[in-house]
Amino acid sequence: NERFAHYLTKTYRKTASLIANSVKAEAMLAGADDKLVDVTFEYGRNIGLAFQLVDDLLDFVSSKDAMGKPTAADLKLGLATAPVLFACEKYPELNAMIMRRFQEPGDAERAFELVHKSQGLEQTRFLAKKHCLEATRLAGKIAESPYQKSLLVVPDLIVNRMK
Known about the structure:
Elements: H1 2-29, H2 34-61, H3 64-67, H4 73-76, H5 82-87, H6 93-99, H7 107-117, H8 120-139, H9 146-159
């Protein structure tokens, strides 16, 4: 859907592009050929998207102490992240809350509740895992080395992080 496509574009621009272009720059500086440079860019893009998806998920399941920010901080800022967008499939009433940026009294609390009642968190984790699997596949195209081994570890760190 259009709203989710916008979310993914925003996530790429906010988080994934930094990681993708950083990994790409490292490959270029190391003298990699164009094909490998493209592989490293896609690896970083997938890692960046997965990182942000997990971050959005943790906003709903982690404590303030664990995350260093209040629970549901994104909702309170008026942001509809992946868990909310997935929850819209089961609870269309979220669409009106998204349009008003969760600004009416009780919107953020109700949206938080509906996300937990839906499959939004599970779907978000699934999508993060999908991006991590793709990153792992891409890292497998890189010649075996200590650097490649490091790239193979990162997806598990991302998908299993707690803060």
